[in-house]
Amino acid sequence: MVTKKKMTLQFYQILGKLFYSIAASDGNVRSIEFDKLKVLVKEQWLDVDDFEDTFGTDAAYQIEIVFDWLNEDEELNAKVCFDDFINYKKSQSHLFTKDIRRLILKTAAAIAYAFSGINKSELTLLAKLDLELKIP
Known about the structure:
Layout: H1 9-24, H2 31-43, H3 61-72, H4 78-91, H5 98-113, H6 120-134
Organism: Winogradskyella pacifica
Protein name: Tellurite resistance protein TerB
């Protein structure tokens, strides 16, 4: 997938927060959810653009790095991370093309489904995400 928008490091970091919020919405992040995210980053997100961080690594890996970092920090909660994503999306709406929005929803749903299907808290958050991404 090729996008015409110039992504930023912060864009990928905020996606890490979003995907963490989906996994943590039920109060427990499971390793299978993180494993699913890593697969999707490699299979889907690395192809979004060729933006690299200061170390020459594809910036899409920031999604995994932030997710893992948040998972280690027991002080942060899913709602705060989700709200951070929504605020970023509103301020940088030009980055959220139709293809990017579709990929975000696909990734979020796959993470939620990774462990025993989608539970109520994940379903609620996915519905909120879907509504938010429909707003230009």
